[in-house]
Amino acid sequence: MSYDKAAVRAVLDKLAADGRDALTAPEGRAVVEAYGIRTPGEGLATNPEDAAGVASALGFPVVMKIVSPDILHKTDAGGVIVGVADAAAAAEAYRTIVRNARAYNPDARIVGVQVQEQLTGGHEVIVGAVTDPTFGKIVAFGLGGVLVEVLRDVTFRLAPTSPATARSMIDGIKAAEILRGVRGAEPADTEALADLIRRVSDLVTDFPELAEVDLNPVLATATSVTAVDVRILVDPDAGKTPQRFTRAEILASMNRIMRPASVAVIGASAEDGKIGNSVMKNLVNGGFAGAIHPVNPKASEILGLPAVQSVGDIPGDVDVAIFAIPAKFVPAALEEAGAKGVAGAILIPSGFGETGNHELQDEVVAIARKHGVRILGPNIYGYYYTPQHLSATFCTPYDVQGGVALSSQSGGIGMAILGFSRSARMGVSAIVGVGNKADIDEDDLLTFFEDDDHTQLIAMHLEDLKDGRAFAETAQRVSKRKPVIVLKAGRTAQGARAASSHTGALAGDDAVYDDILRESGVIRAPGLNDMLEYARGVPLLPTPKGENVVIITGAGGSGVLLSDACVDHQLSLMRIPHDLDEAFRAYIPPFGAAGNPVDITGGEPPSTYRNTIALGLSDPRIHALILGYWHTIVTPPMTFAELVVDVVEEFRAKGVHKPVVASLSGDVEVEEASEYLYRHGVVAYPYTTEKPVAVLGAKYRWARAAGLLTDS
Amino acid sequence: MSYDKAAVRAVLDKLAADGRDALTAPEGRAVVEAYGIRTPGEGLATNPEDAAGVASALGFPVVMKIVSPDILHKTDAGGVIVGVADAAAAAEAYRTIVRNARAYNPDARIVGVQVQEQLTGGHEVIVGAVTDPTFGKIVAFGLGGVLVEVLRDVTFRLAPTSPATARSMIDGIKAAEILRGVRGAEPADTEALADLIRRVSDLVTDFPELAEVDLNPVLATATSVTAVDVRILVDPDAGKTPQRFTRAEILASMNRIMRPASVAVIGASAEDGKIGNSVMKNLVNGGFAGAIHPVNPKASEILGLPAVQSVGDIPGDVDVAIFAIPAKFVPAALEEAGAKGVAGAILIPSGFGETGNHELQDEVVAIARKHGVRILGPNIYGYYYTPQHLSATFCTPYDVQGGVALSSQSGGIGMAILGFSRSARMGVSAIVGVGNKADIDEDDLLTFFEDDDHTQLIAMHLEDLKDGRAFAETAQRVSKRKPVIVLKAGRTAQGARAASSHTGALAGDDAVYDDILRESGVIRAPGLNDMLEYARGVPLLPTPKGENVVIITGAGGSGVLLSDACVDHQLSLMRIPHDLDEAFRAYIPPFGAAGNPVDITGGEPPSTYRNTIALGLSDPRIHALILGYWHTIVTPPMTFAELVVDVVEEFRAKGVHKPVVASLSGDVEVEEASEYLYRHGVVAYPYTTEKPVAVLGAKYRWARAAGLLTDS
């Protein structure tokens, strides 16, 4: 697209010269027209006769609006009259508007009255761009009027947008159907609308000082889109972007931090109950194979390891310094660690930003920057990296190796992760506390885990993002390779208030987070337990090749609930072709219901489960199975579990890998059966039809976003 | 309100005489006007000149519409022209409309063209009434146009409605704010709208043959409501209502069935693996104290009890006959049981309506009716009533007594109920399988449990309701005394399809179920596990007196997630008054955050938890507490659990009963701590911030609907 950037620059220069921060309507119109956005025919009138003349030249009806740099909300000022039908009415409307404007604000400078072609028909939509504190420039799209204002039916994306992304915005609102024309209404030219969204997003990208651009309404007909009203605010600070490290810089630091050859524990202690003692024990007892250097000016050895007075006294290189000393001593110790050339400073102590002590936190960051040290924390429990047997934390050690990497912004949530992992025997590669995120944040972790062969899935609890754009861009790339699950806390108005008092972070608008995380391929977990269950289950399930999900159930009642859950989690129940239906029917009693769910009925022997599951695995048109088990004497829970594992493994050996999840209804023996299934890669739960489907739904959300459903 | 019923009857008589089932526009207008509903000024024109004259008399603009008994969708037929501005245009519009109508349907009888005052301004809303297969006459209210058609923003109630219910409909749509006037728009006269809803609901109640009444649009201004278009369909079958028993009749049967002195087992068997053997064992080993009579023509004694050939041979009265024989033998055996005077026939066998054998099911019901016997089932696992140690089922016996009564339509779900109950040690009064619901259904059970002193809460899994109106009316009454929790399966389009293939029941529209269940005070559980957790937790929590919920947390991160969950579950985080804030601050570190959540911070000793919780319990302005625990060495999990139980029991002893729930974050020891808390009446869960808040939310939903929040 070719834009007249010089025209925009001219308007902005004039604005700066005048010391204004809001564009007048004609200025706004000039700016968007320079970006190829159509606006209604119009003229500026400076007296009643003039208004009559301009209006007659445009053709009636016209709409007339006050032009004043001091009046932003024209309607509130009585500064808008619509449906002006002839020349006399135009002159009269001029007088009324000016009189209203003067009454509203006697000091307002009145430039004149804009006389504008009044468009009829079409749909009113809103296209806008704002500068979000988390994500920077974002574009918004919604249907005009009450739909946006009352129902908040609006969607957001990072600017600039691709053509596909712009189109996804138009399909992404709840009332999208309206623009396709319902009940005989005119459809909108959605391609032209998508084009308009791109132009707006390019405009704010090219001119970052445009803090806010509102095209409201835009009138979208079947053949054109016209920005009827344009409102633009300028703020020189709106163009500021946070400091970023390159991917290579991040990896250079993170590789040394996560896989250190040598760590120093500053504040190491021999005294039970001290944090510096717990950290030492966890490093030593956890089996860390690298060098461990206790630093304590008053000790000569701790846990059998020689202690040094200062980091500087350690022979050889040190990759990581773990700080287990009070906050006030951190700056001096960090200077020493920086001089020693550590890659990472793990700041366990609290007493920084979270308690209001922002100066100390800023001072520490400045020292780290000076020495090229990256900081994890402060105010954290530490971190685990199981491939190195590294438990750099004051909590208990954790050693069940596996493919799940987790992080949490809060220590409490970190402990929940640890407890859940241990209880569910979930194999993890890393658990990382990020705390105040004075420096290292989620996109640094994503960048490391992306290339970490020990990590298959990343799950993150977060309350805010310091640089949402960097996160979104990184997640967009990483989620193509590995599922990224995010629990975004503070997602509601009340929640956000709590987040604010907890971290001092600016509360983000949840709708913005939601849209942009989804667009980045992130799987958002609705709650803590969901995040943990997704993290545990998603890596076990093979990636489905297509959307065809089949439910096979011994309990019709479970089948109904599993179907409900499929709809809740955007899974598609396959429409079973006739031949497949016949094939299922061959295995089930005549009163069982084929179709989908396949209801094999309750009194069936193990062979019926086995035959129907084998059919589901063997038919290439079926991409995923959901099993509903009903406890009977004929097929007891462990019999069911063993036959399922047996048939699934038989097909795995043949190279057939499909996700299989199960819901078990029955007496307490179904708990053991569910655990057995889970241990063998079939995500199974007792007493719930929702959880297995939710985990499968998370797998599908990821696979869709990563473009892996090759059969669909 | 006074209605001209004779005018409506006259129109309907004419319609019947003509053999029509749809009212013409003038007839529809006459019917609603007879019920005091305003319609626009109008006249019928039968030629172009006539149209010009009628229009001139009404004043311009007018809207003109085809009148034909054969054209229902006037717009589709090109039979509507709006904004007709003068007499000449009216004549021309007449010609156009008639020409279009003839093109649309050459056989249509054309009565003429309706010329109608064209109203301007105001809001378009829809008011309608339909005959629902489950609930009978229901009224609907929504905002007109795309809001109803695309966003389905519509709400339903049983007709007739009270004034308060009609008002709740106007507040119950998502876009309710629009009618209150947003951004300078005109507010609607909501009292007049509520009045209109009542008139429509009275109309269909008085004339049940009105199958469908559509007032669309109704134009609602600040001063008037006018039904612009009226569409009414008549169906003589629309007035049919299902057979009902009186409350006294239901109780007479149900008391004998649930608390029998004597039961017969038809098809009792001594042979292991037979259903008739399992039932006998469960009755005997379960400890049932009443008389047990095995019935088997080929045995003389079973499990040490004398067997009889037929029910008729049993000496003395028999309350319940449990059928453990194949379906085809049921009719003859039921004749005998009926002759013996049993109150209830428990039909365990399948092979009735669920396999398509509706004739057999109808035959069995007819036999039961003849003898005054009530049927439970067929196609069920049986039922449990623990106060009598009665396990009348082929599943395993269950004996943990408590206040929860459960029912399920599906056997699979029944087994999940049993397993969950046993695993969670949930005390139950009853578990009842209702299966095909050939006779006894949920409102019979509700009526029994309402008066059953052993039951505190009722939880029901259902896929359909045979008589939704009877259920809603009973639930409305019962839920004032005891929480009623419903898991309605088949709530989505896909789910409903599965329900249909499973039970042959007509799939209800979920929006109708949702609104009417809520209006009846029922707590709807979103899923199976939720139903079970609500059933377990809600009775343990004291009923809150008001809406003020306070979160006390050791983990700020949990506080944010708990706040999120409060919003999800419609709980109000109390705005802490200054004096209370000061009181909390006295106990927590200076960098802790008072306000709500009260963040006591992570490193605190047990006394900080104890002091803040005691303050929360003692201050009468606080009505409920949510605790967030963070596992630390200073306050280990069991220390926390014991101090919480201690302080809660201390206040209970003083007569202070407030609901307290807890979320525990920590290593695996929090599991034991959560169980300890739960056993002592504090609903607590590890690794989840959602579940404890969901259970508290369920308690609040019930307390609000039952009008128990006396402090609010």
TrEMBL record, chains A, B:
Q: Provide this UniProt record's keywords sorted from A to Z.
A: ATP-binding, Nucleotide-binding
- Give one Pfam hit by family name: Succ_CoA_lig
Listed InterPro entries: ATP-grasp, ATP_grasp_subdomain_1, CoA-bd, Ligase_CoA_dom, NAD(P)-bd_dom_sf, Succ_CoA_lig_flav_dom, Succinyl-CoA_synth-like
Cited Gene3D superfamilies: ATP-grasp fold, A domain (3.30.1490.20), ATP-grasp fold, B domain (3.30.470.20), NAD(P)-binding Rossmann-like Domain (3.40.50.720), Succinyl-CoA synthetase domains (3.40.50.261)
Which one of the record's GO molecular function terms can you name? Answer: metal ion binding
Q: Which residues form the ATP-grasp domain?
A: 29-65
Protein name from the UniProt record = Acyl-CoA synthetase (NDP forming)
Q: Which organism is the protein's source?
A: Cryptosporangium aurantiacum
